[in-house]
Amino acid sequence: SITDINGNWIESINVSLKRGAEQIILVNRTIIKKHADIVFVIDSTGSMGEEINDVKNTIINFSDNLNGKDISYRLSLIEFQDYPIMGCGGLSDFPYKIHQFEGQDFTTNITIYKNEISSVILGYGGDTPESQLTAIEKAANLDYKISNPPNITLKFMIVLTDDKPHARDCTCISKTSSGCAETFDTKNNILTNNSYISCYSGP
After folding, report:
1. Residue-wise pLDDT tens for the chain (203 aa)?
2. Which of 16, 80, 176, 191 has a CA between 20 and 30 Å from the CA of residue 201?
3. Which CA distances in Å does 191 have to 36, 73, 78, 201?
4. How far apart are the first and last CA of the chain?
5. How far apart are CA 16 and CA 107, in angstroms?
6. Dihedral, CA atoms, 115, 111, 6, 58, nearest 10 degrees?
7. 0.90 surpassed by pTM
8. Residue 150: is the preceding peptide bond cis (ω within 30°)?
């Protein structure tokens, strides 16, 4: 790719040359300005007890590194546990939680974001599978910045878990939401959708 002196991507360069008494080069360029909306989707069930501090510290360090670079970005956080249904999760569990930053899904304030990350505490989780499919579905519908060429928004979704999701049999999902089969397909649809740059760390 080609960038200008400020590091912005240049989509096209058109050069015309006129011969004569003097040589004139005209450059017509379109500068692409890229912005990143980044959402972390993290498992906060009891089985994450050995990993949760490393997860939080990694996200905090990542945020600090962003803050020191000339990058346009916003950060979001969703955590998930399980469905608060007997045989699925604990009664105090939740299938997803979208953290809010002054009433918004995203923030550019690193201090507020790190405080929110630090506030995550573990729930129960019940059976082995968890509710990440619902959390991923919610993450796909956040208030992302709309691309308006030449300004382009890159959407990043990072899912961190240590367990598999509830399966297509819908034993737990169908009791709390409709369209269970579609919900099951959400992960693959989103993680392979060209509009997202995704990372899924888990079984």
Report:
1. 444 455 554 444 444 444 454 444 444 455 567 789 999 999 999 889 889 999 999 999 999 998 777 788 999 999 999 888 877 888 888 989 999 999 999 999 999 999 999 999 998 877 678 888 888 888 988 999 887 777 788 889 999 988 888 765 556 765 555 445 555 565 666 656 656 666 656 54
2. 176
3. 16, 20, 16, 12
4. 35
5. 44
6. -30
7. no
8. yes
CA 53 to CA 120: how far, in whole Å?
10
d(CA 186, CA 147): 22
